[in-house]
Amino acid sequence: MDDSEDLPISKSSSASTSKVNTKSNHTYSTPKNREMSISSFEYNFSNERRGIAIIIVNDQYQGSNKREGCEKDKQLLQTTFAQYGFEIRCFCDKKAADLIKELKNISKEDHSKSDCLVIAITAHGEEFRDKSVREDLIYTSDKIITTRLVLKLFSDSKCQSLIGKPRLVFIQACRGTKMDDGAQVKYRSSTTSLPQNSNDLIDCVHMRTDNSDMSDAVMEDDIQAQNTPTDTLDHNSDLLNSSTQVLNNQTQNLKLKTVEVSPFVNHAPCYKDFLVMYATPPGYYAFRRTTDGSWFIKSLCDVLNEESDSALNGRPTKNLLTVLTNVISRVAREMQSKSANKHFDAKKQSPVIYSRLTKDVFLTKKN
């Protein structure tokens, strides 16, 4: 259990005035009880400031290949969150110690007059597995840090001025070396009669001949090499192979005992009032394009910009979880890799959301 688990959630005031439907005994929202409705079911986004958007961009790790397209990620993130009124704090190619120092300084600031906090990371990534331990890793310019460390710096116990406020985290990085081959989807329109046995492959959109899709993993050979790339988690491939063998042994034992138990007990960190969205599931690659940026960051920013434009009288029509589900759908259905390396060609990707939000988030523009 994390060190923020036992902190109490504040209750709405019993003095709030509202109308009650005596037939159903449920409170419903009217203009007069709008303030009560917001405090009960939505995070308060009417503070003096919107908050800080921390953007972490790591282009290169100890002489590895440059992450072509990460500059596009940076531009998209800065533009998108700036239009929502965030104060942008951008950290590019920082060494691990320097980055952690900057993040600690921000966590010590007073966020009491802010609506929320955003952290967006675009970097090389990997997973660490050994026995019962699994961690997501982020590559800085010189060392590797865990995503758990970054998130914990802004948990309730480490940053008390953010207690009760949403912390929204978006991470573009590989979480392993598995590939998603996808699956054919049979689609039939409710308004159009399709010929029998007609398949509309909706997972093949956005393929371009002038772009190669890259993965956000650090590998020993160039991504265009014909050999299957190998993971270089500080070159501890023996440790990873040993972990795989342990998994196989445990799986066999579980089958004999007919008991279903996950061999990995520590899940991706997600503290109270956090939403953490990864570009890809645990164990899988994450892709980016050299000219468009990463699939995930581009889709995220595109959808957020579209929602901002479609807001009615400044009020979003969808809560944030619904909006981010649209991001998952867009990446999963509309993106497919195009690469000269057959190992990376015609692959799919699906972002993942971990949420411990206690209320709805309606993200609006703020001057």
UniProtKB/TrEMBL annotation:
Residues 49-178 form the Caspase family p20 domain. PROSITE patterns: CASPASE_P10, CASPASE_P20. GO terms for molecular function: cysteine-type endopeptidase activity. Residues 10-25 have a biased composition (Low complexity). SUPFAM superfamilies: Caspase-like. Gene3D superfamilies: 3.40.50.1460, Caspase-like. It comes from the Eukaryota. Residues 264-365 form the Caspase family p10 domain. Pfam families: Peptidase_C14. Residues 1-33 are annotated as: Disordered. GO terms for biological process: proteolysis. PANTHER family: CASPASE 14, APOPTOSIS-RELATED CYSTEINE PEPTIDASE, MUCOSA ASSOCIATED LYMPHOID TISSUE LYMPHOMA TRANSLOCATION PROTEIN 1/PARACASPASE. Belongs to the peptidase C14A family. This is Caspase-7-like isoform X1. It comes from Biomphalaria glabrata.
